[in-house]
Specification:
This protein has 14 helices and 19 strands. It is an alpha/beta fold. It has 3 domains: 5-59 and 203-278 and 394-435, FAD/NAD(P)-binding domain (3-Layer(bba) Sandwich); 102-176, no CATH class; 195-199 and 280-383, Polyamine Oxidase, Chain A, domain 2, CATH 3.90.660. The strands form 5 sheets. A 7-stranded mixed sheet has the order 7-6-15-16-17-14-18, with helices on both faces. A 5-stranded parallel sheet has the order 9-2-1-13-19, covered by helices on one side. Bound molecules: flavin-adenine dinucleotide.
């Protein structure tokens, strides 16, 4: 019997962990997974808070997230999954307006009445429209302006697009926007309110279950291990200065990060340039705990033009605060250019700046009741899905022999998410198995 083929998986997020799970089921493979940070989980990673684990960036699941829900079953975690009632608001014109049901939309005073009706019809149309192909080359901004009118754009959609895509807000493909509305509208439970999935113990329970299963199967897992370079002319990677041979390598980090580790070889220049053309925004999240409950909504989109952040989340309006020792847990989040000044602000300054805005939303906000604060930043959190995006999507197979790429920049038109990370991890594992035959 021949020696098992060496598989090197770069990245311990859900794509890498899922691919490792599928590949390690094959006795013909010996799998090593390396993660440059000191913990597994990637963008869905957690940190210890009040005796449990909380995501560094807000996370929940939709009922339509079938790939990850299947994995949750398989890992024996179904009893940890809770389906919780969601509540959504929009902060605009100095007030938080409920924004969950058709009736909420009809009552949404910051938008003209005609704008509300047009928005309702547009949402209904997008919910039932299954064919997104025709939307790819149109911008969401232009399509939605035509469908809903200026008042709805000013009060609802433009602030959301700006919050998510910053200066790229008017370049984003309508196909991406269609997927957001279509999936979300269809994830509502049988005409009732929206249910969102969350785990007792946080999303960390998936990471831990995957890690345990991988270790049980003999997968080598190394954290604090960055792939610095791929070797030229041979199947090997440099990890913390050491040359590690492989038969197949799967890279799951951001696309421009693959460009940075490609060997200096003119034949790869065009490919590297293509990877670099995929632009990313960073994300900054402030998490704080407080004795004070600030409102009734889980999720509040902050649509005021002067707001310094996109979203305010009272996590303990989704998940019972009993899980956090009776404290309220909050997120404040923004997508920011990773090379910009705000992204680089010291934690304390960012916290002060964002806290200073909170009295506008919650006049009762009392900083004296704040307990812990934590700031987390991710430099590559959201890629820019413009109207030319489909042609930019990198292939799974790279020009380097034996090297594959799977990351969320290949997911289109859906928004990136843990569900798609699992789906892509499974898909790429099948491709690698095929290539190894
Ligand atoms: C603000 C925010 C909110 C979100 N909310 C949700 C949500 O509510 N629901 C949901 O399902 N999803 C959500 N997501 C998306 C979800 O977190 C991601 O889609 C998913 O976790 C991506 O997994 P991944 O493995 O593809 O990538 P990542 O999690 O980015 O993992 C890639 C890993 O590769 C490592 N790496 C990169 N380069 C190297 C190298 N050279 N050597 C070694 N390691 C390397 C990185 O450190 C990283 O850990 C959210 C994301 C953000 C940013």
């Amino acid at each position: 019997m021949s020696a098992p083929k060496k598989i090197l998986i770069v990245g311990g997020g859900l794509t890498g962990l899922t691919a490792a799970l599928r590949l390690s089921a094959d006795k013909n493979f010996s799998v090593t997974l390396v993660e440059k940070s000191d913990q597994l989980g990637g963008l869905a990673g957690g940190f210890p808070l009040l005796g449990t684990s909380l995501e560094k960036t807000y996370h929940h699941l939709f009922l339509t997230d079938t790939a990850i829900l299947d994995l949750v079953q398989e890992l024996g975690l179904a009893d940890k999954l809770m389906w919780c009632d969601s509540s959504v608001g929009i902060f605009r014109d100095g007030k938080i307006h409920a924004f969950k049901t058709p009736l909420d939309l009809l009552r949404f005073a910051p938008c003209s009445f005609l704008g509300r009706l047009r928005t309702g019809f547009a949402a209904l149309y997008l919910k039932h429209q299954k064919n997104w192909r025709g939307f790819t080359r149109q911008t969401a901004h232009a399509w939605m302006t035509r469908a809903c009118g200026r008042s709805a754009m000013a009060s609802i959609w433009t602030p959301l697009l700006k919050g998510k895509f910053e200066r790229h807000f008017d370049q984003v493909s309508m196909a991406w926007f269609w997927a957001r509305i279509h999936i979300r509208a269809n994830s509502r439970a049988g005409g009732g309110g929206e249910k969102l999935g969350y785990f007792r113990g946080g999303f960390n329970v998936i990471t831990v279950a995957l890690e345990n299963e991988l270790r049980r199967r003999g997968v080598t897992i190394q954290t604090g291990a960055a792939v610095e370079k791929l070797a030229d002319g041979e199947r090997a990677a440099f990890i913390n200065g050491e040359k590690v041979p492989f038969d197949f390598c799967l890279f799951t980090g951001p696309s421009p990060a693959l460009a940075r580790i490609l060997p200096a070889n003119a034949a790869l220049d065009d490919y590297a340039a293509r990877l670099r053309r995929i632009e990313y925004l960073g994300a900054a999240c402030l998490i704080f705990t407080s004795d004070q409950s600030l409102g009734d909504f889980y999720w509040v989109n902050v649509n005021e033009p002067d707001a310094p952040f996109l979203v305010f989340i009272q996590h303990t309006n989704l998940v019972d605060k009993k899980s956090y020792g009776g404290k309220n847990v909050y997120y404040i989040g923004a997508y920011l250019p990773p090379d910009g000044k705000t992204f680089a602000l010291p934690d304390q300054e960012l916290t002060e700046r964002w806290f200073n805005y909170l009295p506008k939303m919650f006049p009762r906000f009392d900083p004296a009741q704040v307990g812990e604060t934590h700031v987390f930043r991710f430099a590559a959190a959201q890629h820019i899905v413009d109207t030319a995006y489909e042609a930019k999507i990198p292939e799974y197979q790279t020009p380097l022999p034996g090297v594959f790429l799977a990351n969320f920049s290949q997911i289109f038109p859906e928004d990136r998410g843990t569900n798609f990370a699992v789906r892509e991890g499974e898909k790429i594992a099948a491709l690698i198995r095929q290539a190894a035959k």
